[in-house]
Amino acid sequence: MTYAGILAAGAGVKMPRQDMPMQFLPLGEKPIIINTLEQFFINTNIDKIVVAAPESWKQFTEDLIGKYDKMGKEVVVIVGDESKTASVWTIVKYIEALWGINDNDILLTHDAVRPFVTQRMIDENIETAKRYDAAGTAMTTNDTILVSEDGITVSDIPPKRKMFAAQTPQTFKLKTLEATFKNALKQNITLSMESELARLYTREKKVIQFVHGEYSNMKIISSYDLEVANALLRERST
Amino acid sequence: MIGRIYRLMDTKRIEMIQREVNLGLNEILAKPDFLSICAADQRYYFGRRRREVLNKKLPMALIHEATATVLYDKNGKLPVGSKVVLVPLIEENQADGLKANYNPQNPFMSSGVDGFMRDFVATAYSGVIPVAGDYSVVYVFCEMISVVFNALEAFEKSRVTKNETVGVWGDGSMSYVVSLVLRCLYPDMKILVFGKTQRKMQRFSFVNKTYNIDKVPQNLHIDHCFECVGEKNSEAAIKQILKMIAPQGCVSLLGVSEEAVVINTRTVLDKGLKLIGSSRSDAKDMKKAMELIQSSDVCRKYLEILISEKIKVKNEKDMVHAFEQSSLNDFKTVIKWEI
Fold it and tell me: Which residue, among A108, A99, A97, has the nearest Cα to A7 in the 3D structure?
């Protein structure tokens, strides 16, 4: 079984005078989260979809998804966590409790606010996760990355060729993922940081194989991003 | 939903555009699997059309030969995962006595409207032909074969003499497919191919004989001819055809030329010839093409070797590579579309 876990639990309130989480704001004719979900509805490799929503917006999320054609896909909405890593753990526990976890099961996780994910990225994530421990979508960075210990001065400039920007989807063999979480919890490792999941994997020497992302697979987290995303959807004549 | 389309913006420049795709009530969603590059696509890509034509038609997504996988059918008529051939002619209008492919009101994809270079296609049921049985890359040639069926329909209506020798001019993919369809439909027909590149003509193993256009023996008897040369050389080909064809023969013209071509009408009149123009095809022709592929193992084998190169395409850079390679390949360049 291949599951898609859509991470929509972040409050994401970075829009001025906007009290609704970003994933529910309109992009083109539909809310961002619906645009994102539709890419998973049409993907023939995805069997079930679990959406992790903010607690107070869970019912709203269910209502919203209910208004659109799910194209035959089974979709459940659960309460997630502010931290992305903790939300993934919540999804894993939900799958375990409801359907059980089998050896070949795969969980693909994706940010609800990345609606420009492509079918290629989804398919390659699944294929790659089946061959390795996990797959991570990544892009080379256009900007030079600076390291600063104090947030004021430059303490290091890592070589650009070694710098990649992480996108989603990130995809895991479910059995391995569950074991990794359990190990981490035994060691009292916090799951509050967004990057913690990849760190747990690298700490255990597990392989996260890259899948090529795209610059267009942008994360919409500000009013500027939303304006750019809407502009991208407008037909261009030249 | 958000869909991506890859349009030729100008000569050799392909750009991805994201736009909202709305699925109509009687439409299905399909993801292209294999695309095949046609000479018409190359003319746009390499800018071999007149500037005013390019200005009028671009930006436009290319490719009108494609197979696809069904992603979604709300009405459940086509199962998810089933394979289809995509039909490029949108038969929106009907006119008495006029074949749909000759009705100027009917759009043709990749010539005036966007072709199949997209992540998925929302199309009416009439825009797909389901593939029954084993799926194979050769179904991508359905559209090309259907063009031959369209030409043969007119040819059959026009020819006076029968069972004879047919000459096919050209040593490229169109000539290959015309010769192959003739061989499959008329096993006893004597098929002679006239070209200029020996290497390419060797591929035509199923015809009776191939000739270099500069070394054609005198007194060859040819009843009917198919011209599949196109572009600037079609004039010389037609000239040679008119010289060699027997009286009351049919000349089926399939090669596209951007420039006007001179034809010696005195010879046409003296010999009582019929010149038949032929372009594109309709859905019925495509179904005939599908039936031919399905019914003949031999045909499928010959179509497999029509592929000069199969290229995986995952991004715009790969697309450019595929088009550039297509100009170097003797026969068809097929794209495995992994967008």
Answer: A108
| Domain at B2-135+306-337, CATH class | alpha beta
Neighbours of A5 (CB within 10 A): 28
Name the residue of chain B whose CA is nearest to A35's CA: B1
For residue B80, list chain A residues with Cβ-Cβ distance below 8 A: 44, 72
pLDDT score, position A116:
97
Transcribe B173-209 into DSSP letters: HHHHHHHHHHHHH-TT-EEEEEES-HHHHTT-TTSSE
The pLDDT mean for chain A works out to 92
Contacts of A42 in chain B (CB under 8 A): 1, 29, 31, 71-72, 120
* Interval B297-321 mean pLDDT: 96
Query: What single letter denotes the amino acid at residue A53?
Result: A
Go through the domains of chain A in sequence order and give each one's CATH number: 2-231 (3.90.550.10)
- Report ipTM for this prediction: 0.82
As a whole number, mean pLDDT of residues B232-237 equals: 95
State the smallest CA–CA distance between residue A136 and chain B in angstroms: 17
Q: Answer whether A41 sits within 8 Å of B314, measured CB to CB.
A: no
CATH number of B146-277: 3.40.50.720
For residue B318, list chain A residues with Cβ-Cβ distance below 8 A: none
Q: Note the maximum CA span of chain B.
A: 64
